[in-house]
Amino acid sequence: MDLPFTSHPLYNFRKAIIIFAIVGIILCFAALEPWGSEAFQVETFLLVASIALSAADVYHYAQYKKDYPDQDPPWPVRKCMLGDTVLTVVLLLGFAAALVTAASGWNYRQSDAIVPAYAALGALLCSALHAYCLWKQVVARPDIDSAMEEGLLIGSDFGTGYGSISTPEPEPSHEPTLEQPVEVVVGSSSRSKGKKKVAGERKQDPMDF
Q1: Region annotation Disordered: residue ranges (predicted)?
Q2: What phi and psi values does residue 175 have, to the nearest 5 degrees?
Q3: Rounded CA gap, 7 and 68, in Å?
Q4: Cα distance between residue 71 and residue 61, in whole Å
Q5: In terms of Cα–Cα distance, which of 56, 54, 25 is closest to 42?
Q6: Which of 115, 80, 77 minimizes the C-alpha distance to 98?
Q7: Quick one: CA dihedral 145, 146, 150, 151, positive or negative?
Q8: Are 46 and 94 in contact (CB under 8 A)?
Q9: How many percent of the chain have pLDDT more than 90?
Q10: Cβ(176)–Cβ(182) under 8 Å?
Q11: Residues facing 197 on adjacent strands
């Protein structure tokens, strides 16, 4: 089955999670006895869940890419983001519990506490990788408000673009306004015929020359 697994945006990180989880599971089986078998059993279960999530994310992305080569697969997926969030927290708690168990074993026999310490470190590394994958997915999610704002800016620059807002310009009015005074012809045949006077001005005093 030839699937484009490497096309996944987080392929290298998902692959690293699977590798570290497998190594951590092996170390957990080696650390089950004599100290704290319950703590490492829980960590083993969490590492298996980490492998399942990472493998499912990459597989479904590659399968969609193969079935619809002309379309981009839906990514990031909310279920994967939720899974990364949960695993980040619980693996960190599992690391703390395993570390306490390894520290208690260190007090009895130092040579027997080395393997549990490395097993606890595997949970910490997987937790950190899940946190990084979650952050990359949050950053990759499209921001609707930013997209709309960008569309408005493009429309304002080019006149007709996505989101451009155009307002009709007011038509010039041919009616006289207060800013355009009306010229009125006054006078008689005995006075300066055809003399123009602007309406709105104060009347001239007969005594003024």
Answers
A1: 164-209
A2: -80, 145
A3: 13
A4: 11
A5: 25
A6: 115
A7: negative
A8: yes
A9: 42
A10: yes
A11: 184
Strand partners of residue 198: 183
Tens of pLDDT, residue by residue over 141-154, are 865 345 445 554 44
pLDDT given at position 59? 95
Do residues 98 and 120 make contact, with C-beta atoms less than 8 angstroms apart? Answer: yes
Token output for 52 = 């399942």
Structure tokens at 1: 């089955």
Task: Detail the DSSP E strand segments found in the chain.
Answer: 183-186, 195-198
Q: Report residue 9 as tokens.
A: 């945006």
Residue type, 55: A
Nearest to residue 123, comparing CAs of 96, 141, 100? 96
DSSP characters over 4-28: -GGGSTTHHHHHHHHHHHHHHHHHH
* Contact by Cβ (8 Å): 20, 129: yes
E strands present in 18-165: none
* Confidence (pTM): 0.65
pLDDT of residue 148: 43
Amino acid identity for residue 140 in this structure: A
Mean pLDDT computed over 29-42? 75
Mean pLDDT, rounded, for 172-188: 52
The per-residue pLDDT for 115 is 83
Q: How far apart are CA 199 and CA 201, in angstroms?
A: 6
pLDDT band at 6 (very low <50, low <70, confident <90, very high): very high
pLDDT digits (tens, 9 = 90+) for 71-103: 888 888 999 999 999 999 999 999 998 888 777
Report the number of secondary-structure helices (H) and strands (E) in the chain. 5, 2
